[in-house]
Amino acid sequence: MEPNDHLQSDEDLSISFERLAVPDATDILFGPAGDWWNNACLLPGAWGYIAGYKIAADKLVSDIESNRQDQDKLVYPIVFLYRQYLELAVKGLIQDGRRLLDIDDWTPITHHRIDRLWPICSGLLAQISPGDSVEEVAQIGRLIDEFCRIDPTSMAFRYPSDKEGKPSLVGLGVINLRNIRDVISKISVILDGASYQLDHYLSIKSEILGSAL
Predict the structure, then answer these.
(1) Exposed (0-12), middle (13-18) or buried (19+): which is 128, by Cβ within 10 Å?
(2) Quick check: 68 pLDDT over 70?
(3) What is the pTM of this model?
(4) In the list 13, 115, 153, 187, which could disulfide-bond 148, CB 3.0-4.6 Å?
(5) Looking at the domain assignment, is residue 153 inside a domain?
(6) pLDDT score recorded for residue 12
(7) What DSSP string describes 33-98?
(8) Is 82 within a domain?
């Protein structure tokens, strides 16, 4: 065998490239198609975002468990998706809690510091349901603080370096993705349960206010 026999010729590469689908003038990104099972409906409100980020991360971890590969690359989107779930879930609880308690503060929460948002959220939940899940709420606070020590502003798993060019995730070596999924799942029991509870209370409040008119 000649040294370069294993290399493809220019002609072979050209044929291979021609078989690949590449963009053309008929392509669009957003819109429905005939395979209806792939047509995603964009639902109003925040719940699709909140649930979707967690479901996506869970599916990626399940794929890694099944195939036992790509964990070193998928770790970044997986952890980002879980953090995004936590942030949106906490922000949603704050918004609904304020509505229920008639707290007239509609200033948009634009920062990503969930370690600062959680005390606000847990304080509202304590007012709404005094004595409920006190230990679990405290543990969520501890875990959120741990998350924010690694990724305080939701940027560390999105970019390899920060705005000043400093590398992200310095000192962090190995993350067990099954473990982070399981811990986030435990947190979601409380967050999702609180969300359902607030939805129920808000529905009752709406009915009472409606009947009073």
Answers:
(1) middle
(2) yes
(3) 0.88
(4) 115
(5) yes
(6) 63
(7) -S-GGG-----SSSHHHHHHHHHHHHHHHHHHHHH---HHHHHHHHHHHHHHHHHHHHHHHHHHHH
(8) yes
Tell me what pLDDT residue 108 has: 80
Domain presence at residue 203: yes
Q: Is residue 33 in some structural domain?
A: no
| Total structural domains within the chain | 1
What tokens were used for 34? 């005939």
User: Domain limits at 119?
Assistant: 45-212
Chain-centroid distance of CA 189 in Å reads 15
More confident of the two residues 14 and 101: 101
Tokens of 5: 């026999």
Is residue 16 predicted with pLDDT exceeding 80? Answer: no
How far are the Cα atoms of 12, 27, 32, 46 from residue 23, in angstroms, in the given order?
21, 6, 18, 33
Instruction: Return the sign of the alpha-carbon dihedral for residues 91, 93, 95, 97.
Output: negative
